[in-house]
Design brief:
The chain is α+β, with helices and mostly antiparallel strands and 142 residues long. It has helices spanning 5-17, 56-66, 89-97, 121-124; strands spanning 29-34, 39-43, 72-78, 105-109, 115-120. It has a single domain, classed as 3-Layer(aba) Sandwich (Cytidine Deaminase, domain 2).
């Protein structure tokens, strides 16, 4: 199966409809494409202890990892408004780490599927901290 961006947008919108956001009323869905052509999705899940909620991107990445995949080629995030709902800092870090060189494409769309932002995770997260920063002796850091 060939996966195009429109399929990812539709999958992100479907995940957004499943979001559990009773406190913020800000449902978000995400769909990602792995380097081996599989698609995983997730939605945000809130609870009364706000810091313990789950972002849509985090949920999609967890589903990807549970499915045995480790590399994100592209991710689409669907937010409810017309202002781009780009991934938060923690999700940017996760996407960067699972995209290898930071080349994963990031598309942000509205709740109607209108594309609001197209970029790369490296562009969203400049000077990212990643696995190379954890190398013993810092050989890869110089």
């Amino acid at each position: 199966m060939t996966v195009d961006r429109q399929y990812l947008v539709e999958t992100a919108l479907e995940a957004q409809r499943a979001a559990y956001a009773p406190y913020s009323n800000h449902p978000v869905g995400a769909a990602l494409l792995t380097d081996d052509g599989r698609v995983f999705s997730g939605c945000n899940v809130e609870n009364a202890a706000f810091p313990l909620g789950t972002c849509a991107e985090q949920a999609a990445i967890a589903a990807m990892a549970a499915g045995g995949a480790r590399r994100i080629a592209e991710i689409v995030v669907a937010g409810p408004g017309v202002v781009p709902c780009s991934p938060c800092g923690g999700c940017r870090q996760r996407i960067f780490e699972f995209s290898g060189s930071g080349g994963a494409r990031v598309t942000v769309c509205s709740g109607t599927g209108t594309v609001l932002l197209e970029t790369s995770i490296a562009e969203l997260l400049r000077h990212a901290f990643g696995p190379a920063n954890l190398a013993p002796g810092g050989e890869e850091n110089e």
